[in-house]
């Protein structure tokens, strides 16, 4: 190999077309992350950028940004404070480019083992997509966490219409005027209570909260648990018939429009004292070829 110094045109050349750039960097970098001590690592994709305010500088030092991401990988545990430190180091690494801002985006799936509703020793794995967006601008640190949470929703209007149709069918079946015996009623319901059924669908909530550098950890599971408890109908993994029946009960007890779901989530997040909570919910209609959506929080 030649002993000559290798050229670095980002330092020796100036921009052919001068101009300041808002953000410059990389995206889609593969990283392992540990969210808690002794926890299985997750596979994340990282986006990292800094600003380039000097219109004459040809380019930033991409390799420095790439190497600094190593400070986030195991055995280090990912925390808000560690993310803030990494952002500051990235700004400092581009001092000769006059950079003053940096941002990091992390995308990964959190896998949680969830038990069946009733069956003992029955459980399965459930995926929760997570997005972390952090920035450091003029010394101000910002960190938002977004989690996607699946649940089931049964339409209250459809449930009312179905109940009416079942009631009509019952009245027609016992129209002879004689009072039916409890056994006859039970038999009729067992065979005909599903004469009409309400429509329900798999639904999704995207929940976003702000964190601070002083927070000790990324409270992802606590956030997920609070939202699922508020909705009452979390998607299930492994089930037996008893668990499926219990899930049907949960849906019957938690009828909700998309507006109801958004309000439930927002009320729970406010009660949980999360900072700057926002929610977007989507009910992927089984009645219509389009979706019902609602937003809560923010502006």
TrEMBL record:
Transmembrane segments: none
Catalysed transformations (reactions): GTP + H2O = 7,8-dihydroneopterin 3'-triphosphate + formate + H(+)
Record's keyword annotation contains Protein transport: no
Record site: May be catalytically important: 155
Pfam families, alphabetized: GCHY-1
EC number(s) from the headed UniProt entry: 3.5.4.16
InterPro entries, alphabetized: GTP_cyclohydrolase_FolE2, GTP_cyclohydrolase_FolE2/MptA
Keywords: Hydrolase
GO molecular function, one term: GTP cyclohydrolase I activity
Key word Transmembrane helix present: no
One GO term of the biological process aspect: tetrahydrofolate biosynthetic process
Pathway, per record: Cofactor biosynthesis; 7,8-dihydroneopterin triphosphate biosynthesis; 7,8-dihydroneopterin triphosphate from GTP: step 1/1
Homology family: Belongs to the GTP cyclohydrolase IV family.
Cited NCBIfam families: PRK13674.1-1 (NF010200)
Reported function: Converts GTP to 7,8-dihydroneopterin triphosphate.
The name this protein goes by in its record: GTP cyclohydrolase FolE2
Encoding gene (name): folE2
